[in-house]
Design brief:
This protein is of the alpha/beta class. The chain has two domains: 130 residues, Glycogen Phosphorylase B (Rossmann fold, 3-Layer(aba) Sandwich), CATH 3.40.50; 181 residues, Glycogen Phosphorylase B (Rossmann fold, 3-Layer(aba) Sandwich). It is built from twelve helices and eleven strands. The chain has a six-stranded parallel β-sheet with strand order 8-7-6-9-10-11. Helix 10 links the parallel strand 10 and strand 11. The radius of gyration is 21 Å and the shape is globular. The relative contact order is 0.12.
Length: 338
């Protein structure tokens, strides 16, 4: 690249995990061009928090095609905002969305880099994003994700732990929810696991997630004698990050909070069935991926199950296996985020 970029726009209106997978690319980009201004464009207001305190990001634009920018007038207003910023490099990680291309056109004339998902072989999403930056001569940024928290979120978590006496024993977080049901372990298994973690490891169990996960959390509580602390819907995104940062282990399917836990340095026991850990598994050291053995359809990489035994891949993940993995991780101690 002959001329160093001064103003860079990264377009990625994706989900939590997608955005966290992008953070190594942002870190590498800032290392390559430390004087450049880097802005991101995300797909909704809650996603802003994932970059709110990121020191490599200057500003965050929101393109919410389902709400705020559903009308043409709002879309053109955002186009004008992008045009006024004089970007000289746009990196589009959402090339399948025609409206993001329309918004990107506001930066013309400028240089464009476009993400193309690797389909010829399986490659982790982090590395797949990074290859988009190869023409810029970026260097490998290290094997970890970024989620920056402010002191107010850490204070919230500290007070929460103090008020419930959570500092006295190791805290194990359970995340039963997932956007795609094929990534969920059963609440019955989570309940049995919660009892074993409490009775055999003297751990305190909490259940985390969004408000939509509360019915799942309630099912776990109703089937458990451990009386886990239900936190679903009771934290903001960054407050959840701070809670996970203070937790010893998270047990979760392939979903956003799993990646959030790795980004704040908490060990993850990742339960995979349909999803492929080679593509979206936990990033960094100290984590465990558990999959069912002997099923030819695993991983199917599908969002729906066509197996004759519905979600057999998740049903075959035994509580004993998960419990032993948690026990081993606790004995090894907490990994570091970087």
């Amino acid at each position: 690249m002959d001329k160093k970029p001064v103003n860079i726009l990264i377009i990625k209106p994706g989900a939590m995990g997608d955005l966290l997978h992008l953070t190594p690319s942002i870190r590498a980009l800032k290392s390559r061009f430390p004087e450049a201004r880097i802005d991101t464009m995300v797909g909704n207001t809650p996603s802003v928090d994932l970059f709110r305190h990121n020191p490599f990001i200057s500003d965050i634009l929101v393109y919410d095609r389902f709400a705020a920018h559903k009308s043409l007038s709002a879309l053109f207003s955002l186009w004008s905002e992008i045009s006024s910023r004089s970007y000289d490099l746009v990196i589009n990680f959402q090339r399948s969305n025609l409206k993001t291309w329309f918004l990107a056109s506001a930066a013309l004339p400028c240089r464009f880099l476009v993400y193309h998902k690797t389909r010829s072989r399986q490659i982790h999403a982090v590395q797949d994003h990074l290859k988009t930056l190869a023409p810029l001569g970026v260097e490998e940024p290290g094997d970890y994700l970024d989620l920056y928290l402010a002191e107010e979120q850490r204070y919230f978590a500290a007070e929460l732990f103090k008020s419930h006496g959570l500092d006295e024993r190791p805290v194990i977080a359970l995340n039963p929810g997932a956007s795609h049901p094929v990534n969920r372990w059963s609440t019955a298994n989570f309940a049995v696991l919660a009892d074993r973690l409490t009775n055999e490891l003297q751990a305190t169990v909490i259940v985390i997630g969004g408000s939509a996960d509360t019915p799942l959390a309630d099912e776990i509580a109703s089937q458990s004698t451990a009386q886990p602390l239900i936190l679903t819907g009771k934290t903001s995104m960054l407050q959840l990050g701070a809670v996970l940062e203070k937790s010893a282990v998270l047990i979760s399917g392939d979903t956003g909070p799993m990646h959030m836990a790795t980004a704040v340095g908490t060990a993850v026991i990742a339960l995979f069935g349909a999803a492929d850990p080679d593509r979206t598994g936990p990033v960094g050291s100290g984590h465990r991926v558990i999959m069912a053995d002997g099923l030819p359809c695993v991983p199917c990489r599908s969002r729906k199950c066509d197996n004759s035994v519905y979600m057999e891949c998740m049903k075959l993940i035994a509580v004993d296996t998960v419990f032993e993995a948690v026990k081993e991780v606790l004995e090894q101690g907490k990994p570091c985020a970087s």
